[in-house]
Design brief:
Length: about 260
């Protein structure tokens, strides 16, 4: 069962990854972004969250494939993204934002009739979550590499904790974010994108316990395959290039999945 984990090459060789990558049209892309989508889906699937009668809430969904995939599984989805008026120019320029249902529909994954019946869209600010989203209404919630863009390490962790109130008892939250594989001390703590350390995740676990929630044990192993030991660099990122680890501004990092269970 996929649990909280750091991205590493061996995941790409598993049956669950290959099966989900094929279903979501992500085959042949050795990159941590499709890993995020596949491991989020796998974690939810293994916890019996993806089927008729389930309800999911997505944050900062952009144009990702997960809303369509969850709808194809029979889930009723509320997908959210930030109001475009509040968005930084780069997100709009590079098309990494959703402003309507059309941006979320992937016809190769789910037909339009099924999608429209199961997916709804609304704006939401992860820094200031409104109760109108539906406190205690969802079986699961998710975000894919979004919480590190809220301005600081603390802002991202505040979002994770605040979002738990939207889950039903026994609900599951799954998030991916940036994780520092080069240091447990030096890291990017503020700015447009921050990078979490092991110590930050351990602090999150302690704070979640006060909310009657728990962070499932994290596999901090970052892998020793040559794809795990090599790393990409921002100026060299091109389509088709292997990209599991990244060196940027002196920080060596990758993606991490965290799985949180509500009591």
């Amino acid at each position: 069962m996929p649990s909280s984990s750091v991205c590493r090459y061996e995941h790409f060789e598993t049956d669950w990854y290959r099966r989900l990558a094929e279903k979501m049209g992500l085959v042949g892309w050795l990159h941590r972004k499709p890993w995020e989508f596949c491991i989020i889906a796998a974690a939810l699937e293994e916890r019996d969250m993806l089927g008729p009668g389930r309800r999911g809430l997505g944050f900062a969904v952009g144009k990702e494939v997960l809303s369509s995939y969850f709808a194809a599984c029979g889930v009723d989805v509320v997908a959210t993204d930030l109001d475009p008026a509040k968005l930084e120019a780069n997100w709009l320029r590079y098309g990494q934002h959703a402003s309507s249902l059309d941006a979320l529909h992937h016809p190769s994954i789910v037909d339009r009739q099924t999608f429209d019946a199961r997916v709804s869209f609304r704006t939401a600010d992860m820094r200031k979550l409104e109760d109108s989203l539906g406190v205690g209404s969802y079986d699961f919630l998710w975000s894919a590499c979004a919480l590190e863009h809220l301005g600081s390490l603390r802002a991202g962790m505040d979002f994770v904790r605040n979002a738990m109130r939207f889950l039903k008892p026994g609900g599951i939250a799954v998030h991916t974010t940036e994780y520092n594989v080069g240091s447990n001390v030096k890291t990017k703590t503020r700015g447009p994108s921050v990078i979490y350390r092991r110590r930050d995740m351990e602090d999150l676990e302690y704070s979640l316990r006060h909310l009657r929630c728990g962070l499932e044990p994290i596999e901090f192993d970052a892998g020793t395959h040559h794809h795990d030991l090599n790393y990409d660099e921002p100026l060299r990122q091109v389509e088709g290039r292997t990209h599991l680890k990244l060196m940027g501004h002196g920080d060596l990092f990758t993606s991490m999945l965290i799985v949180i269970r509500k009591g």
